[in-house]
Amino acid sequence: MSHDDLLSLGAWVLSRRLARRELSAETLVRACLARIAEREPELQAFVVVDAEGALAQARALDAGALRGLLHGLPLGVKDLFDTAELPTAYGSPIYAGHRPAADAAAVALCREAGAVVLGKTVTTEFATFHPGPTRNPHHPEHTPGGSSSGSAAAVAAAMVPLALGTQTAASVIRPAAFCGVVGYKPSFGRVSRAGVKSLSETLDTVGGFGHGVRDAALLGAVLTGDLRLLQWQDAAAPRIGLCPTPEWPQADADTQATWAQAVAALAPLAAEWVDAALPAGFATLVPLHKAIMAHEAARALAHERLRHREQLSPALRSLLDDGLAVSGQVQAANQAAAAPLRQQMDALFARHDVLLAPSTLGTAPAGLQATGDPLFCRAWTLLGLPCVHLPFSRGANGLPVGLQLVGRHGDDHRLLAWAEWAMQRLVR
Amino acid sequence: MSHDDLLSLGAWVLSRRLARRELSAETLVRACLARIAEREPELQAFVVVDAEGALAQARALDAGALRGLLHGLPLGVKDLFDTAELPTAYGSPIYAGHRPAADAAAVALCREAGAVVLGKTVTTEFATFHPGPTRNPHHPEHTPGGSSSGSAAAVAAAMVPLALGTQTAASVIRPAAFCGVVGYKPSFGRVSRAGVKSLSETLDTVGGFGHGVRDAALLGAVLTGDLRLLQWQDAAAPRIGLCPTPEWPQADADTQATWAQAVAALAPLAAEWVDAALPAGFATLVPLHKAIMAHEAARALAHERLRHREQLSPALRSLLDDGLAVSGQVQAANQAAAAPLRQQMDALFARHDVLLAPSTLGTAPAGLQATGDPLFCRAWTLLGLPCVHLPFSRGANGLPVGLQLVGRHGDDHRLLAWAEWAMQRLVR
Prior knowledge:
2 copies of one chain form a homodimer.
Chain A: H1 3-7, H2 10-19, H3 25-43, E1 46-49, H4 51-63, E2 74-78, H5 105-112, E3 116-121, H6 149-156, E4 162-167, H7 173-179, E5 182-185, E6 205-210, H8 213-224, E7 239-242, H9 253-266, E8 272-275, H10 285-300, H11 302-307, H12 314-324, H13 328-348, E9 354-358, H14 375-383, E10 387-394, E11 400-406, H15 412-426
Parallel strand pairs in A: 2-3, 2-4, 7-8, 7-9
Antiparallel strand pairs in A: 1-3, 4-6, 5-6, 5-10, 9-11, 10-11
């Protein structure tokens, strides 16, 4: 089997072959390294590739007992996660050459499950706006999205089968959409953020990327410790609630065409296909998210703001200044305004199994100076709901586009099963 | 004024004098250092005292403009918080000599407000059970409580007017009770945990210690950015809901006597004094807390569990093994069981302004091998509610004991105002 054929299989199928010892971890790592040698000079998805370390890890795995669900699978780690063996700069010159004392919990859990940490992937500056050098694998003049830019691009280019990311506004779903891979943001609170550089206390969420839903689910099962995430087979047709959201007029023609495509493919097959009756205050979630994120960022990055202001990008300085203008009293009021919406949305899931919503305004914008608009993800992140991006379509310019499914808090396993159900019917 | 008189004033009064330049930061730091020289050899509240650094900070503050609410106030920092200038070992030999790259957000915010970081205070191992060397300032053969052992002892001995702590089970309220100071645990989610060693994703809460309620409120205002926490004057008499909790039979004679004392002092003055009608499932909160904390600890400390198991205490290894036995599926069910109790408890605050509850089984137990039972704090921590320990009484053995007030989520400012109201009537 050629390298290309091997790398096209996705993490789930690869994990089966690795577990049966039909495929060695070393062979797979070498295939990834070969792909990286081809694509990385253009894409710049990685901050560092640890070829020697990965080969050593792979050989140790091949020589030993099966470790766990990720046995032998190469993993890209967003450079927002601490790694004891690799430098960790959080996308900022302040931390150039920084070497943490420990692996982030998510990294350690993946290692425990047998993953091979292949390298650190590019993040925007502290997971905010200022982009890194990564290019979109589908068109080098377009952004890969952010902030998990390198992880999404690396999976899209099959340089790694799986990669870790985080989402505070749209940082998993948006790069997944722009790069055409599955992105999975778990329910808030389910995955340890220990050792992940904090941006926003009540929003930051660890997630990941894979080629298909089952691949992302495999990573999700390790991150959450919930093996029900692997039960994605044979889900019954879901009751789908339609959530174009109040911001729908900002969706461009590509996203509108993608929505029409979903209607044609899924409406006849879903158990129900009805507009979701969003609570009255739903449209306030976007401005609430902005204010809450700014307030929390100005506090989480207090050390950098006070000691290294000159090394922050103008965009980040501006975000932190905005955050300082949001007092703790206003923050308390904003959180109090969001809380009942979480309860009302939870009640909505009595009528719908999953919600269908746009992921992005359209395909990846041209240019590498920005990573795209997080608009369609802010509300779901603030609500803390699990989300899966479904990469099933192409825009008029040929770049990837898709939609996201949103699940009930804590129902990640059902969400992933219905995401697999949907993808099987959207991509034929 | 003698050192002793000065140090007895508490942070709030000291902050007024510092702000009016009637007292210099250097004078106050020198008073604290003198007290530390007297008491620290016995108490061992500090991991490190940075005398030279603190004096340099104080002189810079005295020479410059007023910085903020904590201008010139010496601060003890639990050694669970990262500090860029001081070693940070999280109470574990694994991190002996570790020097973080940045200050934790809470530390940076206190510095921004003008606090002088005087040193790092003893924490139990990763804020769990295994104690440090700290002794109770009221009796050297008794535990100061944990995990924020050094911070509570340092404030109780007036070695610093304020200190930072964290609570995952009882780690602010219990040492405050055993050492006879005010401990304040804010509403979950309101204070950034950036740079605080993670133990439990959904439980860890940054809080602090002061001599009186207004002192702790001053620190709380900086941590939350909510200036309403300073409006503790002239609160109207509250409607007090009585919550001895289902575990009340485990309270000893001292705690029972303290409760009777509160009845005598407060019942005639409260706007209402009635039993709180706790939701049916309230008694499940203690076992839920234990299981959730264990699951999350086994994941947050995954790196230490995998790489440094031999350097973990037997008690912590046991906790992590318990946590590994709680699957992600069980964790999801436990979180789903806790969520409606949070809503039902929130509704309870329509009828009560604050809840009165025990803090500890009794006074500090004899011995330094354990830090006491967290029983009476587990439910409130799992509910995420703000808590204030009121140190108003003494047990039969002369050691401090008191009760806690619990507020509605997000109503920290009201809770602190009623805590001040209660203390003025309990201590005459």
